[in-house]
Amino acid sequence: MLRTLVTVLALASAVMGAQKPKTKEPRVKITVDHKPDDCPVRSRQNDMLAMHYIGKFKDGSVFDNSYDRNMPLEFTLGTGMVIKGWDEGLKDMCVGEKRTLFIPYQMAYGEGGFAGRIPPKADLTFEVELVDVIGRRDPKQYEYKDDPKHDEL
Description:
This protein is an alpha+beta fold. Helices cover 18% and strands 29% of the residues. It has helices at residues 2-18, 66-69, 84-89, and strands at 29-34, 47-57, 62-65, 73-76, 98-103, 124-136. It catalyses: [protein]-peptidylproline (omega=180) = [protein]-peptidylproline (omega=0).
């Protein structure tokens, strides 16, 4: 009986030791560069936002800049319209607030990169400014996004 117990414990220990250690999920690192004194509205899930941004690689070189186009990007927060790092890093912002987001590649364009402009596994930095919270959108508006029966998106 004792021998069986020792064998079971040895097997359990071997199985536990063979399991891969849990790795921490990558997270966005947020630095608040400027926060207005008055903040009547904060960004939240399903808000339509207008954002100015400067996107940079790890070496500091710029790959995109909305200020150069004089046109902020408009999108709905938390719906997958932008990279995961933005959906996480832009929550709870005030209009006029500026942040720097340090986004690991897993929350940016992943292992494949993007359209030859963003290399695979590229960690990115974005200097962002919330220009406006345009309004809330109905989350049901996006429910067919991954449904093959609805190909309009």
